[in-house]
Amino acid sequence: MKTHKIKIQAFVLFMLLFSFLGCNDNEFLTEEPKSFYTTDNIFTSGEQLDQVLITIYSSLRDLSKNAVLMGQGTDYFESPQFRINSNFTDYSRINPQSDQFRTIFNSFYETIKDANTVLDPVNLQGEFNSETSKAYIIAQARFFRAYCHGMLAELYGGVPIITELAVEPRFNYVRATREETYQFAIDEIEAILSDLPETTAQGGRIVKAAAQHYLSEFYLAKGIETSNSEDFNMAIQYASDIIDGGRYALMTERFGVRANEENTVTGGADVYWDLFQNGNINFSDGNTESIWALQFDYDAFVLEDDDNFNSHPRSFGPVYRALPGFLGVGEDAGGRGVAFFAPTPLTEFTIWDESISTGDQRNAEHNISRRIFYNDPSLPNFGEQITQSVIDENNDRGWIFPIYYKLNTDLYEGLEDGQNRSNIWTDVYAIRLAETILLRAEAYHRKGENQNAADDINLLRSRAQCDILATASDIDIDYILDERARELYLEERRWNTLLRMGGTVATDRIKANLLHPQFETSLNFDYNLWPIPQEAIDRNTDVILTQNPGWQNR
Q1: 144, 339, 385, 477: which has the fewest C-beta neighbours closer than 10 Å?
Q2: Strand-pair partners of 343
Q3: Cα 537–chain centre separation
Q4: Domain residue spans in the chain?
Q5: CA distance 99 to 78
Q6: What is the pLDDT of residues 419-445, one digit of tens each?
């Protein structure tokens, strides 16, 4: 999906210009400007409003690359030793003025503003191709408005609910409760379900199942907040509408553009590997597991869209060239990695212990490459595997770790144009059926129906050919979070998952899986919400925006 920026010329400047002319010619003064956009003529058609929606899709695509939102500082991944000055490594340095909190908070509200632009009654008076197309435009805008409020509630708790465009500065926004914010998101999405299509011809567009997925998630989150079993029932119902509806299904056989190929670096392949190959990510690619995918495209990047790239190989790639006898930044190195981030012990080791994950394809060498081979042809040990002792001797910076091929590729685009294996242009899942299944499993568990939860989890473990399946007695929140890590590493927004659970879940999980154990004492309060950015509090001068507990004096 190409991105087109909406540029609105400032009508105020036009008016100021003529105020200085001092002309008394009434006819001249009342002439309608033909070449300027005004508040009454900027959006006169459905096509123009759709450009705003495309901007929203693009913004959410770009936000998906935010490392903190992806889970930096959680039990998932952290900055390695030589980048230890990161805010989300030493928790004593995190406070309401941290840029990361402000950036994410503002990004969601910017999207809410764009959605409200589409939904403004004046803009909806323009021409549309049909009532159906108008309804879909409105439905997408309301979905995004609801989605952003729901995300904010998971991360920050109750926030101001914004349903109208601000026509003048406001300083009196009031925080809703967390429950009220979830309920707003739920009401918005339920109101537009019938106006969302089952499928779309254009990849990346919102479909009905995406709305049902977030209804399941927000009902689950609300149920955690209220302890109301009916909320968990609704979460199960909406998830079941997708899981059992007949349109979506887990991919269990090899498929897609490389169905007859293997990983060219490690050898081997399976259906889980296929799920992350370029050209396989969308439902229209024959992937019945894909519900909503964010669109990346190399041709669009070259032609016009400078932000249309994914830097996972660079950011999450190891630095094998630090090893004596290993040369370059080729496919066998996972590309031009600079190790901005490294997996925690949880995602590198713990969840793959043989006591729980024997036979798990998700940990197969072609999915998580753990072996490194000397590649300097001038050495006598060329082609031999580098021993763990040699790796340890050269890994004081923490920059040598496995290559996760769901974040990488063995076939890079753009090399003939000067690209250097830093980036990829594979579409990225926003929602995959596997996550919907895990939402339902969690809702079952919270109702005390652990056998149903185990049955759902075993849908994924069976697909991964695990030798060990879950039993009802295994199921608790930690087991579910571990399974989410095995299946959804760097697909889910881990902070959202941990924080919506409340209590000490986030703090306990982070402390138990620290990449840098020396910072355990810096996480010294129940870290179950992000802080409201201090900038938002300071600007809201007419009403006090109360800070979240634990953050007032940080």
Answers
A1: 385
A2: 77
A3: 26
A4: 251-410+422-492
A5: 17
A6: 999 999 999 999 999 999 999 999 999
